Amino acid sequence: MVRLIKKPFNAKxxxxxxxxxxxxxxxxxxxxxxxxxxxxxxxxxxxxxxxxINIKERVKNHFLQPTYKDNFFIEKVEKIGFINTESEIEALxxxxxxxxxxQPKFNQVWRDNKNYFYVVITKGPKPIVFIAxxxxxxxxxxxxxxxxxxxLKKTLKYLRKVFPxxxxxxxxxxxxxWCHLGLCPGPMPDIDEYKKNLRKLVLILQGKRKTAxxxxxxEMAVAAKAKDFEKxxxxxxxxxxxxxxxxxxxxxxxxxxxxxxxxxxQAIFESIINSRQSIQKIECYDISNIQGTLAxxxxxxxxxxxxxxxxxxxxxxxxxxxxxxxxxxxxxxTRRLTHPEWSYPEVMLIDGGIAQLNxxxxxxxxxxxxxxxxxIARPVKNIKIIxxxxxxxxxxxxxxxxxxxxxxxxxEIYNLIKxxxxxxxxxxxxxxxxxxxxxxxx
Length: 442
Ligand SMILES: [Zn+2]
Prior knowledge:
Elements: H1 2-10, E1 21-24, E2 36-42, E3 45-52, H2 55-64, E4 79-84, H3 88-102, H4 105-108, E5 117-122, E6 129-132, E7 140-146, H5 149-162, H6 177-180, H7 191-205, H8 209-225, H9 229-248, H10 259-273, E8 281-290, E9 294-303, E10 306-307, E11 313-316, H11 325-337, E12 347-351, H12 354-369, H13 374-382, E13 384-389, E14 394-397, E15 404-405, H14 411-441
Parallel strand pairs: 8-12, 12-13
Antiparallel strand pairs: 1-4, 2-3, 2-4, 5-6, 5-7, 8-9, 9-10, 9-11, 13-14, 14-15
Helix pairs in contact: 1-7, 5-9, 7-8, 8-9, 11-12, 12-13
This protein binds zinc ion.
């Protein structure tokens, strides 16, 4: 049994996965509109690796709308390699394996070890599975590193349905919540079976899908031969479930929109909010606090419809007593408006509703009253403030009397607002967790 579980952990992933096609940068139009992994070459060196739902669009996006990070390497790219994958999960896994193998310079530069993700499977009689940032425990197997936590979490969540696993050492005598969801092996599992399943999970995570399916099919055949038809049927169902997940699960977050997509969205957005200028930069604000003690404001930035993380900002609320969200929001906006060097946006989106909209307008007007510099006053004056009331599902727009029900917005605008809001929320929570950890440690 030990041998069974050990073998795939230590085995190297096969190079057969790495049949990628390499083309010149000038032939970018020939890239496929398919999910997969792409590699940027400078000479013969791979300098950056990424995954995408649509390789062609994503690669074009790097060049046409380079982010702050892209600017460090995009000029160096001479050739582009790519591999189509049959699914998003496979793109995620392949990206991880290729980054591990080639360690591209510009994947490394931006992420210290803390920012990568590993799937950890402990050794011992009853292994548990979880995600971690660092390889700390010698008594565990680490699979990865993976670049993106959200995609990895989604993938594991799907796979757990086929290969139920424990996430903590102690299991209650009765069925737990996870048991009822079919995600936990239960209080009294057959440990050999459990480890066999983990072994297949590992195979999938290492990109050896075929081997995993082969093992399952063999298991089904053995059960059928032993006339254990119930088990054979159960294994067959799992094969089908796994096939479905591997082919259809949507795990990669599409963070970037293509220039064509953005052009269309931009025009509609400008007319809806009655913007005086062409919208390129949108900032979105969120205030969060834990029982009023740790209040945090966060600002996320979208440029041409895609998040630009290099421009995100966090604000520790300075005011004493932290009276309410509205006052805290005003502090954040006022502080932000004193930073012309961050370049002003055309739109500020604030989470909340009418009160938040009004305080945004007030912060803007007060900033205007406090400056005589034309190069600050003009862009600040032109900022359009909008606010989303999630409870009532309405969008308030500066200068418009009545809010627009979100359901009446064109789909692309609804999606844009939703992506901005989700991203602000995600960013706020990440920062909050960090702060809370620090706070608890002190
Ligand atoms: Zn359980």
